[in-house]
Amino acid sequence: MSLIRTLLQLVSLALLVWIVLSYIVVFGRVAFDHPLRKAYEFLSRMIEPLLRPIRAVIPPVRVGGASLDLSPLILIMGIYILLAVLPG
Q: What is the DSSP string of 46-76?
């Protein structure tokens, strides 16, 4: 069980870093060859397959002229619920 808990914690940490990097890359207009963009793309390849099934069920919510993707929030809540339920 310790391995599963550790993996879930690593996924939640990677998800939080990915969220922060997404704001930096999108709003900071980071160059294509910048290391932050490379880190964001690497994390995207890991996290997007986890978010895709959630997005299929819950589409982005329209807020004014923008849309808000709730799938990262739902994924992190699900991870923390699993961590609370798992023994150890």
A: HHHHHHHHHHHHSPPEEETTEEE--HHHHHH
